[in-house]
Design goal:
Layout: H1 2-17, H2 24-28, H3 32-51, H4 60-69, H5 76-81, H6 88-120, H7 125-153, H8 162-181, H9 185-206, H10 209-213, H11 216-243, H12 248-269, H13 277-280, H14 284-289, H15 299-328, H16 334-366, H17 370-388, H18 393-411, H19 414-419, H20 428-454, H21 463-482
Length: 488
């Protein structure tokens, strides 16, 4: 690999040495724009030459270090093109790990946590749920990016991501035990905060994989796969949850068991190693300060971040309170509501998978990401408006399917879009953690705003206002996407 890099650098230097010599007196009066064109042509030559090198198994970090030692700063786009295509083993492991991760997220979010809170405090369940979810999200805000920086700098020979993955699994297990056995809301809050630490730890291990191991031509498909796993996990969370209300310990521990299998496979299949020298040698204080980046300098990344925030706030209104919607608006019992959510989720799953897979394939084929954001935000908004005025479960299903299809369209390009606007792809842990903070902020904002919207009109369950406002938030993602310049 070093030979290939040196050959390219030598080729560039030879090309520069063959340029015709100019008399000093003539050069003094030459047009500076000609010099600019020469520099542009040199850059173009280097990019074309680098792109023509056949992919190898040399890690991205090693390629970058070879280029830096040779005196050339490698273009991130060129480095990404060197990544070899991932095979079936990686794809299966990627999907299973994300399924377990999303199951640990969605089982509490959609069913087990609201159910537990209703058992403890049925009279003030909406406010209690919003308070616990909001506090957990606030705790996660600084934790995620800090862990991302530490992950990027990790010196373990065993891998810079793997230790965080195992710690996250442990945090999820502790959280499940605490919440399942909690006799009062304060203990539930402690367990949920521990769960959010697990979310941050697992995220910094899984999310950088797309930028670090997957070439651009496959990112749409792999990003779509994670979206499909999210959809399947959502359906399983409500269906399995409704069947396990008689055994609350199993209800909370089952998702952790699934994640454990995914983590084991990830450790065995996905390559990992210590952080590159340039990350290890950097001061930790300087690395932490770098989390406070200038949004104007990294404009595209900031716009994509805000777009995910808008989608997150809108869908959080729906997902967090849909169980209570079925209980209060449509009059179902807890078990009936869980089973009905599973029915709606099964239909929604078909729409989600269809739009996720189709979106991932088309976005890679067309080399377009933004149009899928436009479609997603419009469908999510439409679904929430339909659900807002649903007089019965049949109309509610129509809204849920529309929203889920929109979520599938968004998931098909979400991670792929983010990975293509990262300011520094080699620091994927930090930047992807910052990106995921947008979802955390949405989770923090949603429960704070939701009780206020539910109380509009003097009632405690104005779901019409809640869902309409959520749809308006979702439309904001289309506006931010339209402003992104670096991705089509």
């Amino acid at each position: 690999m070093l030979k290939n890099v040196n050959w390219q650098l030598t080729r560039v230097k030879i090309g520069a040495s063959l340029e015709p010599k100019t008399d000093p007196s003539v050069a003094a009066g030459s047009d500076q724009s000609a010099q600019g064109r020469a520099r542009d042509e040199g850059k173009s030559m280097r990019r074309k030459d680098a792109a023509s090198i056949a992919p190898s198994n040399t890690p991205l970090e090693e390629v970058s270090q070879l280029a830096l030692r040779a005196g050339e700063a490698e273009d991130p786009t060129t480095a990404a093109l060197r990544l070899p295509k991932v095979g079936p083993g990686f794809i299966f492991t990627y999907g299973l790990a994300y399924f377990g991760f999303f199951l640990c997220l969605f089982m509490p979010a959609l069913f087990s946590l609201p159910y537990k809170i209703q058992l403890i405090d049925p009279e003030a369940k909406e406010t209690a749920l919003g308070l616990i979810v909001g506090i957990g999200a606030v705790v996660l805000l600084p934790v995620g990016p800090i862990l991302g920086v530490l992950s990027d700098r990790s010196k373990f020979a065993w891998g810079r991501r793997r230790p965080f993955l195992l710690l996250g699994l442990g945090a999820f297990a502790i959280s499940a035990l605490v919440i399942a056995t909690a006799p009062a809301l304060p203990m539930v809050l402690i367990g949920y905060v521990v769960a959010q630490c697990g979310v941050a730890l697992v995220s910094v291990a899984l999310n950088p994989a797309l930028a670090e191991h997957v070439p651009p031509a496959q990112r749409g498909k792999l990003g779509a796969l994670s979206g499909v796993m999210a959809s399947i996990a959502g359906v399983c969370a409500t269906l399995v949850g409704s069947l396990l209300i008689g055994n609350i310990l199993v209800l909370f521990l089952l998702p952790v068991s699934v994640l454990a299998v995914g983590v084991l496979l990830w450790i065995l299949v996905v390559p990992d190693g210590p952080a590159p020298e340039r990350f290890q040698s950097a001061k930790l204080t300087a690395a932490l300060r770098s989390l406070l980046f200038n949004p104007l300098k990294h404009r595209d990344f900031s716009l994509v971040w805000v777009g995910k925030l808008f989608i997150g706030v809108g869908t959080a209104f729906f997902s967090t309170y849909q169980l209570y919607f079925l209980l209060d608006r449509l009059g179902f019992t807890v078990q009936e509501a869980g089973q009905q959510l599973a029915v709606a989720g099964g239909l929604a799953l078909l729409a989600t998978i269809g739009f996720t897979v189709l979106g991932g394939f088309l976005s890679d084929k067309l080399k377009r990401r933004k149009p899928f954001i436009y479609v997603a935000s419009a469908m999510i908004a439409s679904g929430m408006v339909v659900a807002a005025f649903a007089p019965d479960f049949g109309v509610y299903i129509v809204g849920a399917v529309l929203l889920s299809a929109g979520s599938g369209a968004f998931n098909s390009v979400d991670l792929a879009l983010a990975s293509e606007v990262l300011p520094d792809p080699a620091a994927g842990g930090k930047w992807m953690s910052i990106y995921q903070v947008s979802g955390t902020v949405a989770t923090a904002i949603g429960p704070v705003i939701a009780p206020l919207l539910l109380a509009v009109g003097g009632t405690s369950g104005n779901y019409t206002v809640l869902f309409i406002v959520g749809g308006a938030f979702a439309l904001g993602a289309a506006i931010t996407a339209s402003r992104v310049r670096g991705v089509r």
